[in-house]
């Protein structure tokens, strides 16, 4: 897609970004953008936030932020239920969009979000850090090279001491809401996205799920990604430190991505704490109209379809 907009008026070498939602993800983005050679936070909006973001303008509403002339790209870091409306507003205003995952928590809404950015012709991506993290990119290279051998299969294991996680205590009630929250939407979605990048389109084959007071507590399910089986074993146990591990195994070798951004493969181990800088680098490429690695709205929509199939509550 060819994409070009006037850059931030304060510095023509920078792309001006407006953040909607100053929770953990919004704050992380703002911190990562400090000193970045291409990205500058120029405005922010959060009706509940008490702190400012550097010298960025605190707008009175999301609409004011979206319409601000210095905002070239809108970073939507608010709860999932707000995403579609904000996407529609930003797309109609001709602004580029960087949206937190999940794209939406309703399949029809996710398709509508894809349609909105396509109709407006704006650049848009979803914040799945495994799109750019070096460990995930190396895992993708290993899988696609055939080094693991034939009959590749994958297993994802996750454990949580509690849900929401303790460090999410200030995030609001939506993380424990049956319509927006739960560890499938919040955590497993990352790995479903990655599995799509590694293997191809996915579909749910079977699942067993036990519900807590509001969201899932124990999950066992099996998915098929273009002929590659992915087994997921997830639980909120209360007696173990948080852990996630994705093992991809073939007849010749195995590679394991663990604790988000650590990769073990043979004698090689790649590790990094997070991937915010690489995400911003790729966002800069997107805003310059270049090819980039960020997750597309179409990919994120496919993840929504899988996630919502997994957490669908059966009614009798």
Describe this structure in words.
With 316 residues, the chain is α/β, with parallel strands linked by helices. It folds into two domains: 114 residues, NAD(P)-binding Rossmann-like Domain (Rossmann fold), CATH 3.40.50; 142 residues, Dihydrodipicolinate Reductase, domain 2 (2-Layer Sandwich). It contains eight helices and 14 strands. The strands form two sheets. It has an eight-stranded mixed sheet, with helices on one face. The protein has a six-stranded parallel sheet with strand order 3-2-1-4-5-6, sandwiched between helices. α4 packs antiparallel against α8, α5 crosses α6 and α6 packs across α8. The N terminus is likely disordered.
What secondary-structure arrangement, pairings included, does this model have?
Elements: E1 15-20, H1 24-33, E2 39-45, E3 57-58, H2 62-67, E4 73-76, H3 83-92, E5 96-100, H4 107-120, E6 124-127, H5 134-145, E7 153-160, H6 183-199, E8 202-211, E9 216-225, E10 228-236, E11 243-249, E12 254-258, E13 262-265, E14 268-271, H7 276-287, H8 297-310
Parallel strand pairs: 1-2, 1-4, 2-3, 4-5, 5-6, 7-10
Antiparallel strand pairs: 7-11, 8-9, 9-10, 11-12, 12-13, 13-14
Helix pairs in contact: 3-4, 4-8, 5-6, 6-8
DSSP helical segment count: 8
Mean pLDDT: 92
CATH architecture of the largest domain: 2-Layer Sandwich
The domain tally reads 2
Residue share in β-strands: 25-35%
Q: Unreliable runs, pLDDT <50, ≥5 residues?
A: 1-6
Shape: globular
Taken in chain order, the helices and strands follow as: EHEEHEHEHEHEHEEEEEEEHH
The CATH superfamily label of the largest domain reads Dihydrodipicolinate Reductase, domain 2
Q: How many β strands by DSSP?
A: 14
Termini separation:
47 Å
Radius of gyration, rounded?
Answer: 19 Å
By helix and strand content, what is the structural category? alpha/beta
What is the CATH level 1 assignment of the largest domain?
A: Alpha Beta
Biggest sheet layout: 8 strands, mixed
Helix content: 25-40%
């Amino acid at each position: 897609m060819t994409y070009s907009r006037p850059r931030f008026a304060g510095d023509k070498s920078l792309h001006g970004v407006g953040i909607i939602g100053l929770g953990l993800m919004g704050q992380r983005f703002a911190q990562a953008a400090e000193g970045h050679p291409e990205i500058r936070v120029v405005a922010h909006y959060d009706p509940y936030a008490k702190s400012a973001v550097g010298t960025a303008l605190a707008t009175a509403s999301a609409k004011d932020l979206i319409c601000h002339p210095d905002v070239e790209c809108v970073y939507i870091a608010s709860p999932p239920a707000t995403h579609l409306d904000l996407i529609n507003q930003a797309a109609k205003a001709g602004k580029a969009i960087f949206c937190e995952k999940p794209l939406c928590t309703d399949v029809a809404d996710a398709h509508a979000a894809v349609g909105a950015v396509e109709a407006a012709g704006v650049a848009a991506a979803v914040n799945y850090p495994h799109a750019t993290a070096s460990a995930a990119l190396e895992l993708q290279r290993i899988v696609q090279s055939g080094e693991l051998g034939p009959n590749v299969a994958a297993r994802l294991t996750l454990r949580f001491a509690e849900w929401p996680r303790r460090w999410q205590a200030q995030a609001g009630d939506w993380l424990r809401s049956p319509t927006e929250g739960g560890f499938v939407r919040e955590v497993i979605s990352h790995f479903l996205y990655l599995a799509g990048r590694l293997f191809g389109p996915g579909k749910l084959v079977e699942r067993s799920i036990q519900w807590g007071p509001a969201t899932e507590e124990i999950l066992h399910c099996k998915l098929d990604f273009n002929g590659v089986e992915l087994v997921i074993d997830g639980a909120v146990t209360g007696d173990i430190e948080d852990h996630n591990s994705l093992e991809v195994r073939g007849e010749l070798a195995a590679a394991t991505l663990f604790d988000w951004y650590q990769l073990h493969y043979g004698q090689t181990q790649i590790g990094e704490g997070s991937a915010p800088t690489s995400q911003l680098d790729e966002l800069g490429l997107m805003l310059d109209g270049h090819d980039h690695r960020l997750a597309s709205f179409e990919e994120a929509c496919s993840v929504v379809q899988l996630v919502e199939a997994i957490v669908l509550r059966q009614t009798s």
